[in-house]
Design a protein that fits this description.
The protein has about 120 residues and is of the alpha+beta class. The protein has helices spanning about 75-90, 105-110, and strands at about 1-5, 5, 10-15, 20-30, 35-45, 50, 60-65, 70, 95-100. The protein contains two helices and nine strands. A four-stranded mixed beta sheet has the order 3-4-5-9. Strands 6-7-8 form a three-stranded antiparallel beta sheet, with no helix packed on it.
Length: about 120
């Protein structure tokens, strides 16, 4: 993915903690710059009014309730919007892996609709 003069690679992941069941489920988007040692991992965990796909929806789906706002973490446009929101808050890590809660970025990308 090209953003300005920067190139980013990215991948989607989904993991389970068997002991915790769905509560231990998480979906991630990991971004990196080729040739750099820095990684940014956006983590989406289930929680109150927050759903992470665990075979209820298509893989990569994350949803906010009660407004049913939805993003698919496999979609390049979604990843680009999340990256833009992340970069508006903090610079991309120069080295090491940095984990960020993805839900505040979701809320920045998809503002909640008032009823």
């Amino acid at each position: 993915m090209v953003v300005g003069d920067m190139v980013y690679g990215w991948c989607f992941g989904h993991r389970h903690d068997r002991a915790r069941g769905y509560a231990g489920c998480r979906s991630t988007v990991t971004l990196w710059r080729p040739g750099s040692k820095g990684r940014l991992r956006l983590v989406f965990r289930p929680g109150p009014d927050r759903i992470v796909s665990d075979s209820y929806f298509e893989e990569g789906a994350v949803m906010r309730l009660p407004d049913r706002a939805y993003l698919n973490l496999h979609e390049p446009g979604t990843v680009r919007a999340l990256l833009d929101a992340a970069l508006a808050r903090d610079p991309f890590p120069a080295e090491g892996s940095v984990e960020r809660d993805g839900w505040p970025l979701f809320d920045a990308v998809v503002p909640e609709q008032s009823s």
